[in-house]
Amino acid sequence: MTATDRSVELINAAAQAAADKLAHDIIAYDVSDVLSITDAFLLASAPNDRQVKSIVDEIEERLNKDLGAKPVRREGDREARWVLLDYVDIVVHVQHSEERVFYALERLWKDCPQLELPADAEATRGKAEEYAQAQGPDGGAGGELS
Question: Taking the model in full, what pTM does it have?
Fold first, then answer.
């Protein structure tokens, strides 16, 4: 079993919306063979709570406006460290960069096939590491991008 065309359409729209709001390390997995509750997961991260909220809001707005899709559940808004949007066909996880490293969802789903994403989303891979290096060892400005 593979993700449906509708799931892929939702994933691509969500990935593009996340990329447009400068999300880091956007990746999607086809989890349809291992989970019966959803077809695909989209993971994205951001370096601060405000940007996490901005990314989530953009994804929700874009999927509603362009595809008529509304999440059946939205969790994690209050802290904005890890926000989950459940669209039944897909589940979107937008995490603060620290949570992304700590929970390492990629390790859980590494055996699932990755879904191809729009070029803008693919280009975000490695951005979290670049951002961390630019912030320097104390978390403030001063480091340089390699």
Answer: 0.87
